[in-house]
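Late entry, written up from scratch paper. The run itself happened at the end of the previous shift, but nothing got recorded in the book at the time, so transcribing now.
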Amino acid sequence: MWSGIPFLYVHERLADTISIDKIATVSVDSSFSWETIIAAFISGLVPALISLYVIRQNNESVRYQQSREDKRNYAAHVRLNVSEYAYQLTKVKELHSEWIDEGIKGVSYKRPEIEKNMSAALLELEKYKVSLLISVLDDEKGLAFKKSINDIQSYLSEIIIKKHSSINDSRNWVGRYSDFISDANKYLNN
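Output as recorded:
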């Protein structure tokens, strides 16, 4: 059989006489391998455990950061209330001192603008006191600080009710006011 140009015509060639009767088959005989399944499971388990650990640590970090932020916000709020309350205490004490000075000079205690200013300042003081008392937590340290808040205002009220002021009253006031500021700082720094 001639295949055409460029092949020569050869009457019988070996390739022309070979015939294929059957297509070759490939057979693979293997048993089920548990090692492959276990290796795949372990190779997936290790990154999953690492990811789980990282997620848990991130959640704890976020909770910690949030609690610190909440504490900072709370401290800023209480610090603002303490400063307003301390300012009002000072304002009432100054008005009281002015009132006493007027009395010492012989001017009547019934001077209307001083009493009006004193009444307004006492109302403001009470407002800031309530705001501060509400802001302070009812734990052990908070209750001690609330006692300090009430004590300083009670002492100021006692001085005002006397309608006169002595040097001891002034010294005691300075000491109690310093103690109040110190108690406030102790409470805010814990």
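The helical segments are 14-17, 34-104, 112-135, 140-162, 167-189.
(Scratch paper discarded after transcription.)
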